[in-house]
Amino acid sequence: MRYDDAKIETAVLALLGALEFENGRVWKRYDFDVMDSLHEKGYITNPHGRHESVYLTEQGLQLAKQLADEWFGVSDGPQSQRAP
After folding, report:
1. Is 34 among the domain residues?
2. Is residue 82 assigned to a domain?
3. Is the pLDDT of residue 72 over 70?
4. Domain contains 23
5. Which of the residues 8, 42, 73, 78 has an alpha carbon 20 to 30 A from that of 67?
6. Which long-range contacts (CB under 8 A, 24 or more apart) does 38-44 make?
7. pTM of the full predicted structure?
8. Is the pLDDT of residue 55 over 90?
9. What residues pair up with 25 in beta bridges, in sequence order?
10. Strand runs labelled E in the chain
11. Angle at 47 between CA 41 and CA 49, to 5 degrees
């Protein structure tokens, strides 16, 4: 499945807005509480430790791909232009 870059950028910007602190400051990574919650629900491996990344579990990968296809998928035509 191809994904609409403009929709992805808009979603990332929305997440940055939701997780903003100190009058416009945002972390480049996801909020620790959110990652802990996803781990507790069984969607990702343990987010604590020295690694810069986590793995999606089988259940997490299935749900993540379903959501990505639903929210960002494009069916035909050229990819959308990037959001400003």
Report:
1. yes
2. no
3. yes
4. yes
5. 78
6. none
7. 0.77
8. yes
9. 21
10. 2-3, 73-74
11. 150
